[in-house]
Amino acid sequence: MARIPDAFIDDLLARTDIVEVINARVPLKRQGKEYSSRCPFHDERSASFTVSPTKQFYHCFGCGAHGTAISFLMNYDRLEFLDAVDELAKRAGMEVPRDTQQREARPDSAPMYDALEAASRFFVRQLAGHEGARTYLDRRGLDDATRTTFGIGYAPDGFSALKDALGKDDARRIAVMEKVGLLSKNDRGHSYDKFRDRVMFPIHDRRGRVIAFGGRVLKAEDSPKYLNSPETPLFHKGRELYGLWQVRQANQKIERLVVVEGYMDVVSLFQFGVPQAVATLGTATTPDHAELLFRNAPDVFFCFDGDAAGRRAATRAMESVLPRMRDGRQAFFLFLPDGEDPDTIVRSEGAAGFEARLTQATPLSTFFFDTLGEGINLSTLDGKARLAERAKPMLGQIPDGAFADLMRQRLAELTGIGAAGPTTTGPAPMRMARGGRGAPPPKRSLVRHAIALLLQKPGLAADLPPPYPFVALRQPGIELLTELIAIASVRPDITTGVLLSQFDGREEAPALRKLASQSLPGDATTWALELGDVIAQLDRQVLQQKIDDLLGQQRAGTLDAAGKQTLRDLLLQRAR
Prior knowledge:
It is built from 23 helices and 16 strands. Strand 3 and strand 4 form a beta hairpin. The protein is of the alpha+beta class. It folds into five domains: about 5-100, Zinc finger, CHC2-typedomain (DNA Primase, Chain A); about 110-235, Alpha-Beta Complex (DNA primase DNAg catalytic core, N-terminal domain), CATH 3.90.980.10; about 245-365, Dna Topoisomerase Vi A Subunit, Chain: A, domain 2, CATH 3.40.1360.10; about 375-415, DnaG, RNA polymerase domain, helical bundle (Pheromone ER-1); about 445-575, DNAb Helicase, Chain A.
C-alpha cells in the first residue's frame, strides 16, 4: 500500500478540528477546556470519553480508545486508513498526494466487492433483454439516464441464473456469493439465487462500490414487495442510506437531504429535479442514520405517509436526531396525503410542487411538542406535569446550545414550570478535601513532568536547542523524554494526537496516553517556562551524577590525578 508522507498527515490534522469531526457523530458537551461524552466504542452510563481541541486527540478512560481524527473515522465510520484521510482531506480542501490513490482493496474484501460488482453488471445486461422489466420501468417513467445513474437492472426468474453466470462449478466463488447475500440455501444445503424476477437496485457505499441490492417485484400481487440483501460483512442496513452516493455525485455542496421510504421515491425525485433524496433500507431511522445524514447536510427533511405507521416512523426519526441537534442543524417532518408517496407527488406536481410541500414541513420543535402532548389536556396541572415529565429526559439529550435553550424555554411556556437542563453526564466533580480546597495533584518526577508538558504542547520542543546534557542521566524515562523531544523538534507542528500515534503498540503507550489526557494548569507560555526550568534541573542532576561517580571512585581508591582534577572542577561548577 502506498505510504502518505508524514508531513501531509501532520498538515491535514493541523487543519482538522477534531471536536467538529467527532461532534458530528457523537454529541459532545464542553467540560472546561475539553469536551466529553459517553464513549461510542463501549457501553457506559457515565461520560468517560474526552476530546481535547488543543491536543487534537480523544481518549476514553473506560475502554482506552484513543487517537486522532483519522483513527476516530477508522473506528467509528469503519473506514480504512486512506478512506479516512480522503474524507478529512475533502473537508479541509486538500488533495491527497496522487500516488497514494493507487492501492488494492483489502485481500479479504476484494472478492466480495468483485462478486457484487459482477452481479450488478449481470443484472444490467439482463434488463436490456427483458421486455417485461423494461416495460415496468417505462410505466414508472424512468428514463435511460436515470437507470444508468442508479445502475438499475433485472434479476431473471429461476433459481440459478446468477449462480450459473458467475459461480458455476466454482465452489470458492459460490461461497463468496453466499457470504454477500446473492445466494440463499435450502434445507438440503443447496444454494440458489436470492433475487428472482425483480427489478434490481444496487446499493453503494460512500466510495461508490456496490455492497448490497434491493429488489422490487414486477407484479403488485407478489410479495414481499421489496427484498433487501441480508446483513453481510460489507452491508449493515442500519448504517447505510440508499442514494447517498448519487446525491454526493450530483451536488457539489449538499444543503439538505430528504429522507423517503422507497427506492422508487429516491429515483423519481432525482429524475424530476430533486437530487437530494435518500432512503433507509427497510428499517426505521437509526442513530447511525441520523449521524450520517447530518454529516452530509445541515438540514434534513423526513418525508413519511400521514397514517399511523408514518407517524410512528417520524417519532423514531425524531428520537434518533434529538441527540444530534447541535446549533446550525435543522430537522423537518413532511407528511403526505393518504395514497400518495414522493414518487406520485413529484410526477403529478413536478419538482416545484414537491418543493412547495417541503417549505410547509413541520419543524422538529413543533413536531416534538405536538407528539409528546398528544392526548394531554394542558389546561390542567396534571396535564402540564405529564408533558414536563415526558419531555425532560428527551430534552436532556439535546447538545448544549441555543436550540436546547429554546426547547426548554418552550416547555416552560407550555407548562408554566422550568424544564430540567441537560442531564449531566460529565466526569464526577473532584472530591473536596477538608477546608474546601481540591486535593492537590499527585507529585511527579521531573522527567515525568517534562513529558507531561511536552504532551500538552509538543511544539515546546522547538525551544530546547541541543546539546541536551540530561540525556546522560541514569533515570527511568530519560530515553523516552529524549525520543519525544527528537520527534517534536523536527516536526514542530505535530499535535499531541499524532505524537501519541508514534508510540502505538509500545509498552510506553498507555502511560503516555494517561499523561496526555490530564489537564495541566497554565497556558503555553507558562508551560514553556516550566519545561525550561525542568530541563535545567535535569542538567544540574547530570552534574551531580558525575560528582557522585567520581566520589565513588575516590572512596574505592581508583581515582587518578586527572579524575581528581575533574572532581575539583565539577565541585566548583556546582558551587557557582
